[in-house]
Write a structure and sequence with these properties.
alpha/beta; 6-stranded parallel β-sheet; 6 strands; 193 residues
Length: 193
């Protein structure tokens, strides 16, 4: 599969490239666009400030420019937290999207969002301060109404961005389970294409 993998508000940290290498080792082609021009942080507050400084429209513009050269191939859009939000927005707007892999995050849906059975897999902590139960229930229903085929995997006791070994949220067991399930999801997409 061709995968466009977007980083979180922490920027293009080593964990993003490590995830890309894991996906490449499984036979996928992966691109990791840098939406923050190389800037990284260990602080969610600094990362959020950076996101706000750049602005949502500019981040989406950068993401679309990064994906455009490859979108004809039929991309799987993926991302971590903020990057998951970006990935969701692009996947719902790309009729050639093959799948959507959301790690630690979701996004609002446009009221007229519509896809034809887009396979979506979400991995999120339970509880997660950024992805509350009420929000996830509403999001799941909206994605279903939009035509997506959604599955949600929750990880009790894990921190928000639990797949990054350099952050306090790190949870080795939850991260390993996530990658096992995600790789199986991508394999299913490959077989279906």
């Amino acid at each position: 599969m061709d995968i466009m993998l977007f980083h979180s508000v922490y920027g293009p940290r080593p964990a993003v490239e490590a995830a890309a290498e894991r996906l490449r080792a499984a036979g996928h082609r992966v691109w990791t666009p840098d939406l923050f021009d190389g800037w990284t942080t260990d602080s969610v507050e600094e990362g959020t400030a950076k996101r706000d400084e750049i602005g949502k429209d500019e981040l989406l513009r950068r993401a679309i420019l990064a994906a455009a050269p490859y979108s004809e191939r039929g991309l799987v859009y993926a991302g971590f937290s903020l990057g998951a939000s970006v990935a969701q927005t692009l996947a719902l707007g790309d009729e050639r999207a093959r799948g959507l892999l959301l790690l630690h995050g979701t996004s609002d849906l446009a009221p007229d969002a519509s896809v034809d059975g887009l396979p979506v897999q979400l991995h999120v902590a339970e509880p997660d301060p950024f992805e509350t139960d009420d929000w996830l229930s509403a999001w799941y229903l909206q994605m279903g109404r939009a035509g997506a085929d959604v599955e949600i995997h929750r990880y009790r006791g894990a921190g928000h961005l639990y797949t990054d070994p350099d952050l306090l949220d790190w949870d080795a067991e939850a991260a390993e389970r996530t990658w096992t399930v995600a790789l199986a999801f991508l394999e299913e997409l490959e077989e279906a294409s």
